[in-house]
Design brief:
The complex is a heterodimer of chains A (113) and B (112).
Chain A: E1 4-7, E2 10-13, E3 19-25, E4 31-37, E5 43-49, E6 56-57, E7 65-67, E8 73-78, E9 87-94, E10 103-104, E11 108-112
Parallel strand pairs in A: 2-11
Antiparallel strand pairs in A: 1-3, 3-8, 4-5, 4-9, 5-6, 7-8, 9-10, 9-11
Chain B: E1 4-7, E2 10-14, E3 19-25, E4 29-37, E5 43-48, E6 52-56, E7 59-64, E8 69-74, E9 83-91, E10 101-102, E11 106-111
Parallel strand pairs in B: 2-11
Antiparallel strand pairs in B: 1-3, 3-8, 4-5, 4-9, 6-7, 7-8, 9-10, 9-11
Classes of the chains: A mainly beta (113), B mainly beta (112).
């Protein structure tokens, strides 16, 4: 049982390049989330999904797109990377019924030069 | 939106000492979680505690939802306890969809 798996773990991009971060969970969770963590700060919500085929904006959505084509996968895309998007990205998931804890992946460290 | 404030921002301890970390929040919550972010950046889920008290080894947590705060107790601290401790809350209400708002964290350093 892997829980929440993020790939890649590290990536360096040049300004203007595009890339996709993958989050996969094997717990059959309906809800999934993407957060970013900047130095000295807590995590902030980028986008989230409440089920397959759904997405919604969080606190800091600009510059990112997401897709949830399969229940177990939640993709975060950067179409044209900017240095301000240098951050550590965390994915999380949880059950949709009742009050439940979120389960987090190990993070993706992304640097944009 | 809901505000989450953690104190103290930094804490330095000698191994074996006890400590209390505090999390204040500005609105009613459905969910409150405490996390430890280790030096490798991993977020370790310590407690899911929207109310009441829980204990896990040397760590315990208490949330007083009516007074909008939570406390994390670390007893007999060890160097492996070093890292950043985050409190995160989910605002009460049917349309929150489990979204968490994080505090700024408490940086704990335990010296041998």
């Amino acid at each position: 049982n892997a829980g929440v798996t993020q790939t890649p773990k590290f990536r360096v991009l040049k300004t203007g390049q595009s890339m996709t971060l993958l989050c996969a969970q094997d717990m059959n969770h309906e809800y999934m989330y993407w957060y970013r963590q900047d130095p000295g700060m807590g995590l902030r919500l980028i986008h989230y999904s409440v089920g397959e085929g759904t997405t919604a904006k969080g606190e800091v959505p600009d510059g990112y797109n997401v897709s949830r084509l399969k229940k177990q996968n939640f993709l975060l895309g950067l179409e044209s990377a900017a240095p301000s998007q240098t951050s550590v990205y965390f994915c999380a998931s949880r059950w949709d019924r009742g009050n439940q804890p979120q389960h987090f992946g190990d993070g993706t460290r992304l640097s944009i030069l | 939106g809901i505000q989450v404030e953690q104190s103290p921002p930094d804490l330095i301890l000698q191994e074996g000492a006890n400590s209390t970390l505090r999390c204040n929040f500005s609105d009613s919550v459905n969910n409150l979680q405490w996390f430890h972010q280790n030096p490798w950046g991993q977020l370790i889920n310590l407690f899911y505690i929207p109310s009441g008290t829980k204990q896990n080894g040397r760590l315990s947590a208490t949330t007083v939802a009516t007074e909008r705060y939570s406390l994390l107790y670390i007893s007999s601290s060890q160097t492996t306890d070093s890292g950043v401790y985050f409190c995160a809350v989910e605002t009460a209400g049917g349309t929150s969809y489990g979204k968490l708002t994080f505090g700024q964290g408490t940086i704990l350093t335990v010296h041998p």
